[in-house]
Amino acid sequence: DQQVKQxxxxxxxxxxxxxxxxCDYTNSMFDYFLWYKKYPAEGPTFxxxxxxxxxxxxxxxxxxxxxxxAKHLSLHIVPSQPGxxxxxxxxxxxxxxxxxxxxxxxxxxxxxP
Amino acid sequence: xxxxxxxxxHLIKTRGQQVTLRCxxxxxxxxxxxxxxxxxxxxxxxxxxxxxxxxxxxxFPDRFSGHQxxxxxxxxxxxxxxxxxxxxxxxxxxxxxxxxQYFGPGTRLTVx
Lengths: 113, 112
Prior knowledge:
The complex is a heterodimer.
Chain A: E1 4-5, E2 10-14, E3 19-25, E4 32-38, E5 45-51, E6 56-59, E7 62-67, E8 72-77, E9 86-93, E10 102-103, E11 107-112
Chain B: E1 5-7, E2 10-13, E3 19-24, E4 31-37, E5 44-50, E6 53-57, E7 64-68, E8 74-78, E9 87-94, E10 102-103, E11 107-111
Parallel strand pairs in B: 2-11
Antiparallel strand pairs in B: 1-3, 3-8, 4-5, 4-9, 5-6, 7-8, 9-10, 9-11
């Protein structure tokens, strides 16, 4: 039972353009969502998060959008840079206070110079 | 500000053996969670410790056990290792009452 799904295993984008990574979830109890970036041989690095009471959160080049009715969120990176090339994981939790995270399978983003 | 640290970096064991992995949380954090990441998949939640007690547990057998010490550091123990236990084991720390978990670099376990 995959409660968090990232349907695109890979995405390739030109430097300077927008990268859009998508994530769908099935558990309506999820109320907090996070994006992590992972380089090979490193642990996931926290990027940005959003609470279910919001529909958008921005941090520099990164923006996360949440559509609760569609149970869908997306991460926008503008402009994309070669250093953004990594695996991006979407994660969700049912409650705040550092509760267990449920992860998607990840999307490999490649930003070409 | 020290981040989450894990040891060892890599480990090779044979089937049936036991293994202990260690984690030190980020400074100021009091909650430690463990995840297993198989190749090509997202991390899967094993369990979470707070105040030296197991607070939550994922769908993992009793062969997986843990401990949290008074200084908030934690250990993950796996008994009777199977080939399928080969994975990257990630430790994440957080402060109770906050929402974001921060991950260590992981321990790569190979079971032969």
